[in-house]
Amino acid sequence: MNHLAHVVLAGPDEGLRLGAFLGDHVKGREALSDLPPDWAAGVELHRCIDSFSDGHPAVLGLLERLESPWRRYGGVISDVLFDHMLTRYWSRFGPTDLVELGGQVDELLARHAERLPPRLVRFGAWARSRGLWWRYGERDMLEEIFFLLARRHGRSWPLSHGARLLDDHEAAIEEAFLELFPDLQARASEDRERLYSTWSSM
Questions:
Q1: Residue 9: CA atoms inside 13 Å, Cβ hemisphere, count?
Q2: Mean pLDDT for the chain?
Q3: Dihedral through CA 82, CA 88, CA 89, CA 94, nearest 10?
Q4: 44-76 per-position pLDDT tens digit
Q5: What does each C-alpha distance from 27 to 24, 43, 46, 53, 69 come to in angstroms?
Q6: In this model, does residue 144 exceed pLDDT 90?
Q7: Which InterPro entries does UniProt cross-reference here (predicted)?
Q8: Mapping DSSP to helix (H, G, I), strand (E, B) and coil, where does residue 97 land?
Q9: Whole-angstrom Cα distance, residue 84 to residue 142?
């Protein structure tokens, strides 16, 4: 899953939200011992969410429909497009007003910038400047995200054209998201309680 979904699935706890972002920046289990317990729980929650999502029948079925070369990068692209779908169905799945949530996330990342990895700090500044959280539903924002992903991965095709996957498979992507996300919410709720309890006792 991508950033917006991870924030939603982390719940309202600030430590878990920070850990949700750090999940893409902290590697291995040993590094978790250097983090505050709630941040570490958030990192593990991020990993649990990604593992559950990657193995979900809805996601596997969607990727099976894709032709080469889309299939190779389908997981990366579909993560972004699922955030797009999340904004489309925000009234069903969102915990609060989307603009309000975006403001909370921007403030959270800025407040803890001195303790976060430089790449995450740069991402937070970019997200704040671009109004990322409430613009995932806009086509031009999707295209900007895919352009940046392509540059980061050094692979212009097909990543920079990821929005075309929405044009060609919108109904299938929407169907997969609507099957996946309720299951993710239920699983994340269980994992949040378990991980928070585990890490808070250390």
A1: 34
A2: 93
A3: 80
A4: 999 999 999 999 999 999 999 988 878 888 889
A5: 8, 9, 12, 19, 28
A6: yes
A7: ACP_PD
A8: coil
A9: 8
